[in-house]
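Weekly modeling sync, notes
Attendees: S.R. (lead), two postdocs, one rotation student

Agenda item 3: backlog of single-chain predictions. S.R. asked that every request posted to the team notebook include the full sequence so nobody has to chase files. The rotation student volunteered to paste the first one in as an example of the format we agreed on. Action items at the bottom.

Example entry:
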Amino acid sequence: MRILYHLWLNPACRAVRIAMAEKGLDFELVLEKTWERRAEFMALDPSGEVPILVESEGEVIAGASAILEYLEDVYDSPPLIGNAPVERAEVRRLVSWFGDKFGREVSEFIHNEKFVKRFLTKGEPDSKAVRAGLANIRTHLDYIAYLTDRRNWLAGEAFSLADIMAGAHLSAIDYMGDVPWSRHEAAKEWYARIKSRPSFRSLLEDYISGFPPPKHYADLDF
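Predicted structure, as returned to the notebook:
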């Protein structure tokens, strides 16, 4: 059985979980508290970060980008990155946009301050950083609306890794109730389609003791 080492609400881990579910792959999900720096885990990859995928035969693939590309190379059905070179380039551009730019401008401010600090007991959230993340997310929601007004999905007509990466990041912020859906109806409609996919189901079932999600988190008709 292949194993995916992950951490609660980590957007990169969530993206890999969705992609593997889309491809119908069975895997065991193992929670890895990376701050404990377990020797057995560090031996898999010296970065000590998640996600890490260990295949059934023992191959180790570390990091979301490497894992997502690996899944496309080895398990090519259904394709999640497009067929034509220009399509693949656009998917990769948007994976970078949401994985890197959204990560820096939103997830690092909100997720790190409100969730990571809490579980690492590093003090109270920096309210200035949280406000910056809440302001920045509006631009990204507007961009999702812009894209989906012109395309069926973010990168084109087909569901792709671009939608997976964006949905993974937003799902982590939504768990904390910090996505202003009421002001961004077009982005909400796109996210509702993401939430309704079977591959997203396990994310909506996540529940962290002492840190419950808002009532709408798992509601497909939110």
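Discussion: group reviewed the output briefly. Helices lie at 11-22, 39-42, 64-74, 85-119, 127-150, 161-175, 185-195, 201-204.
Action items: rotation student to repeat for the remaining queue; S.R. to check formatting next week.
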